[in-house]
TrEMBL record:
Keywords: ATP-binding, Hydrolase, Iron, Iron-sulfur, Metal-binding, Nucleotide-binding. The lineage of its organism: Archaea, Thermoproteota, Thermoprotei, Sulfolobales, Sulfolobaceae. Binds and transfers iron-sulfur (Fe-S) clusters to target apoproteins. Can hydrolyze ATP. SUPFAM superfamilies: P-loop containing nucleoside triphosphate hydrolases. Residues 1-15 have a biased composition (Polar residues). Gene3D superfamilies: P-loop containing nucleotide triphosphate hydrolases. This is Iron-sulfur cluster carrier protein. InterPro entries: Mrp-like_CS, Mrp/NBP35_ATP-bd, P-loop_NTPase, YlxH/NBP35. It comes from Metallosphaera yellowstonensis MK1. GO terms for biological process: iron-sulfur cluster assembly. It comes from the Archaea. Residues 1-29 are annotated as: Disordered. Belongs to the Mrp/NBP35 ATP-binding proteins family. GO terms for molecular function: ATP binding; ATP hydrolysis activity; ATP-dependent FeS chaperone activity; iron-sulfur cluster binding; metal ion binding.
Amino acid sequence: MSSNPFRLQSPQPTKQPRDLRKAPAPQVQGADLKIQTRMKNVKFKIAILSGKGGVGKSFVSSNLAMALAAANKRVGIVDVDFHGPSVPKMLGVRGQMLTADDNGINPVNGPFGIKVVSIDFLLPRDDTPVIWRGSIKHSAIRQFLGDVNWGELDYLIIDMPPGTGDEALSVAQLVPNITGFIIVTIPSEVSTLAVKRSINFAKTVNTRILGVVENMSYFVCPSEGKAYYIFGQDKGKKMAEELGVELLGQVPLDPRIAESNDLGEPFFLKYLESPASKEFLKIADKVINVVEGKSNSSA
């Protein structure tokens, strides 16, 4: 088992299993008060969900964070995908370490001044697995929210693991006044079915759905300029219309995305004029419009 830098403690066993969507037990209220104190300085808290893996959720989270920061917003991102943390590499800050002082844990500074927290900063080796049960992950999320010096932020992006399990329930329970969920899909039938489960999860925990981002929507051939819909055309758009949620954007495929991610170079920062980066700027503008009621667009 990996070492535990946060000295996380498993909660005391109870006679009956507790629904994580309900109020926390009395012994953890002090910790939740710390979360309330930290989060009152964060205007908008947005969790990024995907019904299944492999749709580029962490890529969307990382590049949306950079696009919001490029729109002069103060942004933080917390990576709660404990078993597959990839946000630090996508933001080009992998290998850095979290520090701490009397006020708590200091996040790593990423592109555009984004504040970054991830379990990846705490793992001793690349091949170190995180073997945690749900109760430990719940405690880790509590500490990521309540013990980190987030400071004054306009947006905190929460990158979630795939599915609607322990981490999703913990975030829905622990984040006070969460602004809403953004759900990531690709234009395939399998993915859109999984997204419907995510939307129903959001309804179950009474959390607003801000919209859907369709990743890997199409590929434009550089030689002929023709768009190819490799996974299918407009399935995310049709699904959003059917379910009554907003389609925030359609991010195209670009071979440079995989190249940048593999090299640990922030795609948005390196290829700011690319169609994908421009789409993220549009998505950020829509998010600002949805949650703040205004647009950053100069048009």
